Amino acid sequence: MLTERELESCYLGQFIPVHYHHNMLMDNRRMSGFKAAITHLVAPGAKVLELGGGTGVLSWFAAAKAEKVWCVEYNPDLVAEAKRFLAQNVNGDRVEVIQGDAFEYLPPEPVDVVICEMIHVAMLREKQVQVIESFKQRYLEKFGGPLPLFIPEAMIMAVQPLQQDYCFEGYNAPIVQFQEPTFIQSGSVELAQPSVYSLLDFTQAVPAQIAWQGVFAIEHDGTVNALRFVTKNILAVVMEQSTTVDWLNHYLVLPLAEPVSVQKGDQLYVSLEYKAGGSIPSLQASLRAQHLHVVEAEWATQTRHVAAYA
């Protein structure tokens, strides 16, 4: 019988199949970004912890300069894979692969850097926020401060109204889509500029609940029938060059239950609310898009009703 956490992990993606991790090895943007960030932040002789180590590749990047790396992975199949791969690579002996729960594991001594890549676009499905916040609390209780550096250091999340083509060879199907950020999306018409709805800074306390409401200035006539979610991971801040090492997740495009016809110059109100690590449907169910004047009229009516009963 699976525990509640194990059931949630299987459903929400913590227990990711091995072949998915193999695909991540072939993601050049992800690999080069993390390698650059780890090379920058891990000092010679450092102690490093990776939470959710997968195939062990990020721990191996750290081992190029670190004295010791602890690589914690929950999935026993991936533990075996990581050990097998690391044994074939120089400096792999500096990495100790441990089968354990990232929500519970602490290293035997203080570390300088923590790597945690439990990242999904919009911080859905995977438990990055909860794992990091749990780690910070337990680490401070055991070792005191300061906290280690975290990779990634922060995340910027944005949302954008789209007119999305859902016609597939004549068959209309409004489906959830993932888009490659480096490709031109011919089926997507951007009706307004993206707006940042959340900034997660792992040097600070990060709440799991995410809620936002904002107004977009519509730039083109069309029908807003989808919202695109963009997640930019700040893997490392390079202070001496006043720049950052970034990695963009695939875009997530969610169809709206009620599309909105718009014209250039309109103001579109959008609201959303979900929990980091939650399911895609949980975010989709919260989405609301309406003309601002309609929402303002609703607010005015509610205010009058409250005043009448006061």
Task: Describe the protein in words.
The protein is of the alpha+beta class and 310 residues long. It is 29% helix and 35% strand. The chain folds into 2 domains: 4-151, Vaccinia Virus protein VP39 (Rossmann fold); 154-298, Hnrnp arginine n-methyltransferase1, CATH 2.70.160. The strands form 4 sheets. Strands 6, 9, 10, 11, 13, 14 and 15 form a 7-stranded antiparallel beta sheet that branches. Strands 3-2-1-4-5 form a 5-stranded parallel beta sheet, with helices on both faces. A 3-stranded antiparallel beta sheet has the order 12-16-17. Helix 6 links the parallel strand 4 (113-116) and strand 5 (149-151).
Number of beta strands: 17
Q: What is the CATH class designation of the largest domain? A: Alpha Beta
SSE series: HHHEHEHEEHEEEEEEEEEEEEHEH
Low-confidence stretches: 9-14
Q: Within the CATH hierarchy, at the fold level, what is the topology of the largest domain? A: Rossmann fold
Count of helical segments? 8
Structural domain tally:
2
What's the architecture of the largest domain, going by CATH? Answer: 3-Layer(aba) Sandwich
What's the arrangement of secondary structure elements?
Elements: H1 4-12, H2 18-25, H3 28-41, E1 47-51, H4 57-63, E2 68-73, H5 76-86, E3 95-99, E4 113-116, H6 128-143, E5 149-151, E6 154-164, E7 167-168, E8 171-172, E9 177-179, E10 188-190, E11 195-201, E12 209-217, E13 222-238, E14 243-248, E15 251-262, E16 267-275, H7 280-286, E17 288-291, H8 292-309
Parallel strand pairs: 1-2, 1-4, 2-3, 4-5
Antiparallel strand pairs: 6-10, 6-11, 6-13, 7-8, 9-15, 12-16, 13-14, 13-15, 16-17
